[in-house]
Design brief:
Elements lengths: L1 H14 L1 H6 L1 H16 L18 H5 L28 E13 H15 L7 H9 L2 E13 L2 E16 L8 E20 L3 E20 L7 H11 L4 E15 L3 E10 L17 E10 L5 E8 L10 H4 E9 L3 E8 L2 E10 L2 E11 L8 E13 L1
């Protein structure tokens, strides 16, 4: 199964090489900046994540990201560790998943440029450069592998995000590229237990390696000896950190034969997550609450939920950025349809569970402004993997 998954990922990457090569000249400045960021993050990082979970399952994202009362598979390791203790049976899932996220703006620019290149009309002129500088690039990748039972689970994870935006007039009056990137990789483990018929509690621990970066790069830095000096400065300012993130959660479930109500609360980064390098800012402790309403039959269900993250607003975000709302329609455990509002923006997606193979696709918008409707990045995602049973 792993070899098949690896082959699919390889095929997916190969099919995009043509477009990548065609637009190499178009994107060489921004791609070079992104590579530098992944290799050499800067100490003055501005977190992209803030109150969002370290990782969010793609199907949960499509349903507005409201995952405190029902999270999909590996998502419980990052949203609410008390969830697996609800329900019957011991083994929940053995899973593997990879997902990629692409900003819609960059996809549109790539499509239009590819059409012009095929027609022989693509020219590297001032108009094209202006288009590149005006087009934000948002990309991400996640990898997960592990198992989850009703009372404990263990998983390996890697998640990364980068947001690149050009400015026609930067801090020195010249074109400038602003890059923000973050990544984390590690091990996630949890333990959970039921208390009576209506309550469950759980805790999770994640030893991890984290990287955060923030940098403004003038295009003049890429000319002559400036490029070597830029690379040297970035390497000198490299910051990374090892830390241990812990979280706790509790869920109350009130069940009838065809309708359930769930109430959940979690605390992420208990006591703050600090790193062995002071250049990485601590991840702040946050309190989250959620409610879920679940009409269901024996084989299908509709789960509608609302979450409010960082109730005390310790990251200073507007409540619209911290809110998650949406519904998941689950049909015979084979087909899932999700829709909602992620950070106040519409989201949607579909999942197909084909016995061992699982396919997911959808879209959401990530807000980078102070509140909803200011600086939204429409993002499309595709994910593939396996699950047992």
């Amino acid at each position: 199964m792993f070899s098949e998954l690896s082959y699919k990922i390889h095929s997916f990457k190969h099919s995009h090489k043509i477009v990548t090569k065609t637009l190499f000249g178009l994107f060489k400045v921004t791609s070079f900046a992104f590579q530098l960021q992944l290799l050499t993050p800067n100490a003055s990082a501005e977190p992209l994540r803030k109150s969002s979970p370290l990782y969010e399952n793609p199907f949960d994202l499509s349903a507005g990201g409201a995952s405190l009362t029902r999270s999909t598979q590996e998502g419980v390791l990052f949203s609410n560790p008390s969830l697996p203790a609800l329900g019957s049976g011991l083994l929940r899932w053995i899973y593997g998943r990879t997902s990629v996220h692409f900003g819609a703006d960059a996809i549109d620019l790539t499509r239009e440029s590819y059409k012009k290149q095929k027609a022989g009309e693509l020219k590297v002129d001032s108009q094209l450069i202006e288009s590149v500088l005006k087009t934000p690039i948002h990309i991400g990748n996640d990898l997960n592998l592990g198992f989850i039972t009703a009372f404990a689970g263990l998983g390996l994870f890697q998640c990364s995000r980068a947001d690149i935006q050009g400015r026609q007039f930067g801090s020195v009056g010249l074109p400038e590229i602003r890059t923000r990137a973050e990544a984390a990789a590690g091990v996630a483990a949890f333990a959970a237990m039921p208390i009576g018929d209506t309550l469950s509690v759980g805790a999770t621990v994640k030893p991890l390696y984290a990287v955060e970066s923030y940098e403004n790069i003038s295009l003049s830095d890429f000319s002559g000896s400036g490029a070597q000096q830029l690379l040297s400065d970035l390497k000198a300012n490299t910051q990374f950190g090892l830390g241990i993130s812990t979280g706790i959660g509790a869920t109350a479930q009130f069940r009838t034969s065809n309708f359930d109500i769930r109430l959940a609360t979690t605390v992420d980064d208990v006591g703050q997550t600090k790193f062995n390098n002071s250049g990485i800012s601590p991840w702040k402790q946050i309190l989250n609450i959620g409610v879920g309403l679940i009409p269901h039959t024996r084989s299908s269900a509709i789960h509608c939920a609302f979450d409010l993250r960082d109730v005390q607003a310790v990251y200073g975000e507007h409540w619209t950025r911290r809110s998650r709302a949406g519904c998941k329609i689950l049909l015979n455990s084979r087909v899932g349809i999700g829709a909602g509002f992620y950070q106040g923006w519409p989201s949607y997606g579909l999942v197909l569970n084909l016995v061992l193979l699982r396919l997911e696709a959808g879209s959401y918008t990530r807000e980078f402004g102070s509140e909803v409707g200011t600086i939204g990045r429409r993002v499309y995602f595709v994910a593939t993997g396996f699950e047992m049973p």
